[in-house]
Design brief:
Blueprint lengths: L8 E4 L2 E4 L4 H7 L6 E6 L5 E8 L2 E8 L5 E7 L4 E6 L6 E3 L3 E4 L2 E8 L4 E9 L29 E3 L6 E3 L1 H6 L1
Antiparallel strand pairs: 1-2, 3-6, 4-5, 5-11, 6-10, 7-8, 7-11, 9-10, 12-13
């Protein structure tokens, strides 16, 4: 019997029907934390996401809508699992490099290419897995102990494994 004017709520069975209110306001009233949110960003990216839960997996697809590189700390409403980064363009799967878990949420530092996207998949229990929880600074601006790059040998091999060409001299010249 919600009419959108005088009656904006109706209890039905074990649930509620709400009319004319944003999901954000409803979640806030019920003390539900957001499923996904950005904690900090360098300001260059505009992220969109979708989340799917299947069996014991939580799968988030996160897409950078901007044409800029960006680094973003994202927070997921997932607890007790290790985040993995799945790259849709290459098929590569890797553990998240920097992440932390606290208060029922997992924060993951993600780097985005322009218009790039990643899957963040939670499928393994966090049984005391050692990992980085923070990283700061600009590695490019820090002086290195060994600033010289020495190419000793470089070989180019075709994707299918056929053909092999020594490109050492060409790379050294660069």
């Amino acid at each position: 019997n919600c009419d959108g004017h005088a009656i904006l709520e109706n209890h039905y069975g074990h649930g509620e029907i709400l009319w004319g209110r944003s999901l954000a306001s409803v979640f806030k009233e019920q003390n539900l934390s957001p499923d996904f949110e950005t904690v900090s960003s360098d300001g260059n990216v505009d992220l969109k996401y979708t989340h799917r839960h299947a069996d014991d997996l939580d799968i988030y697809f996160i897409s950078n809508q901007s044409r800029h590189f960006g680094s973003v700390e994202c927070s997921f409403r997932v607890d007790g699992q290790v985040p993995e980064i799945w790259h849709p363009d290459t098929g590569r799967i890797e553990p998240a490099m920097v992440w932390s878990a606290q208060d029922g949420r997992t924060k993951v530092l993600l780097n985005f290419d322009p218009a790039g996207s990643v899957f963040v998949v939670f499928r393994q229990a966090n049984n005391g897995v050692n990992h980085l929880i923070a990283a700061k600074g600009d590695m490019a601006s820090q002086s290195l102990k060994h600033p010289k790059l020495e190419i000793q040998q470089a070989v180019y091999v075709g994707v299918n494994g056929a053909g092999e060409t020594n490109v050492t001299d060409k790379l050294v010249a660069l």
